[in-house]
Design a protein that fits this description.
With 121 residues, this protein is α+β, with helices and mostly antiparallel strands. It folds into 2 domains: 39 residues, no CATH class; 56 residues, no CATH class. Helices cover 38% and strands 17% of the residues. It has 3 helices and 4 strands. The chain has a 4-stranded antiparallel sheet, with helices on one face. Strand 1 and strand 2 form a beta hairpin. Helix 1 crosses helix 2.
């Protein structure tokens, strides 16, 4: 088996495992599962290596970092990075996609947390 075939096998093994677990497959679901399988295996359906989006991610808007939703649960709250521990309450996400979903709500952006920085999730 060639290296490319092994890479394809790694992708499809991950992809079909996710399909089996989901129980239902729409085109959107297939796309999401395909992207997730690529991230887990590190390869696409053609056996080509893909950039993995592993790591920690946080959401920001301008110079402010998202810390959660206000008391009423509808308004985002933010913190400024003005002191060494000012980002200690900023949540991080293990999935870039989940961070992007939060950022979409208020037009924010996603930032990778550099290794060694404080991670809360």
């Amino acid at each position: 088996m060639t290296e490319k075939e092994q890479n394809q096998l790694a992708f499809y093994n991950s992809f079909y495992g996710l399909v089996w677990e989901s129980g239902w497959l729409s085109s959107d679901t297939a796309y999401d599962l395909s992207k997730q399988a690529q991230q887990e295996s590190g390869f696409n359906a053609f056996g080509e290596e893909v950039e993995r989006e592993i790591g920690a991610w946080r959401v920001k808007s301008g110079e402010m970092y998202w810390t959660g939703w206000g008391e009423d649960g509808t308004h985002p709250t933010f913190a400024l990075d003005t002191a060494p521990d000012s980002l200690s309450d900023v949540p991080t996400f293990n999935s870039k996609r989940k961070a992007e979903e939060v950022a979409e709500i208020f037009g924010g952006e996603v930032e990778r947390v550099e290794e060694g920085e404080h991670e809360t999730d």
